[in-house]
Amino acid sequence: MKLKNKKTGEIGNLVLNINPNRESYSVLSTENGDTVCGNLVLADYDSLAELNSEWEDYEEPKTHWMIDTSVLEPVREIAGMPYEIDKEIGNWFSTKEEAEEVVEKLKAFKRLKDKGFRFDLSPALGHCDDKKFDISIIGTMPAKWWYNDKVVDDIHYIFGGEE
Question: Looking at residues 10-14, what average pLDDT do you find?
Fold first, then answer.
């Protein structure tokens, strides 16, 4: 079990020492991440109360992924809480793969936009029943691009697929 020193922030692993005459607790260094023979003993305690006065449970910092074009890779891992703006604009992802997929969809959408793709502003057709409301949205683009395989692939990648 990993512990964190309340004063210094040092991380250590808890070890129960069982001797014939008494039970004690040691906190061992986690310099290499494992508790093995030969690790430096950071502290010894005769009771849990004594141990709890200086150490607390350690929790790994939560991480998330975000799109960041200011670095070499467009996706990077961030430890701690995301900035509020990242939550508001949806630039907060649980996994690297999820963030990378969004980057690829943005690139595909940019390619379509550069070729003249746009959403038609005319009134959309819709259908409503007591369980859901379906909306038909019409996208348009110059006809010369419609038979381009890359364009069709991008449209299917962004808008197609399973629901």
Answer: 82
| Location of structure tokens 């939550």 | 87
**Three-state DSSP class for residue 43:** strand
- For residues 21 and 50, the model is more confident at 50
4 Cβ neighbours under 8 A, 6+ residues apart: 10, 11, 55, 56, 57, 58
- Enter the pTM of the model: 0.57
- The string of pLDDT tens digits covering residues 50-75 is 888 888 988 877 788 888 887 778 88
Q: Spell out the alpha helix ranges (H) of the chain.
A: 48-54, 84-89, 96-114, 149-159
Q: Judge residue 112's burial from the number of C-beta atoms within 10 Å of its C-beta, 0-12 exposed, 13-18 middle, 19 or more buried.
A: buried
Backbone angles phi, psi at 101, to 5 degrees: -65, -40
CB 139 within 8 A of CB 154: no
